[in-house]
Amino acid sequence: MSFRSSLLSLLAATSLATASAAGNGYYRAAVVDYEVLQNNSLTPRENLMNNVLNYNQFLQIAKSQEADIIVFPEGGLLGSDYSILLTIPDPSLNIVPNGSYDQSLQDLSGYAKTYGIYLAVNVLENYTDPSSGKSYKYNTNIVFDRNGSLIARYRKFNLYGEPVDRPDKPEYSVFKSDFNVTFGQFICFDILFKEPALTLISQHEVYDFIYPSAWFSELPFLTSVQTQWSWAVGNNVTLLSAGLSNKTESRGGSGIFRGKNALNNLFTFSDMLGSTIMVGDVPIRNTNSAGSGKGDFTSTMSRGEASFPLWQQPNIDQFNHENITLPNNETSVTFKRNICHEKLCCDFDLTVQYVNPTSSVQYKAVVFDGKRTTGGTKNDGFGLQVCGIVLCSNGSISSCGSPAVNGVLPHFNDSIPKVTFTAINIKGNFITDNANPLPNVLLWPSNPSLPTTPGSFLINTKEVQFSSNTTMSSLIVNTQNQIITVAIHSRVFSRDPGNSAPTTLVSLSTMLIAILPFLIR
Question: What are 466's strand-pairing partners?
Answer without folding.
Answer: 475
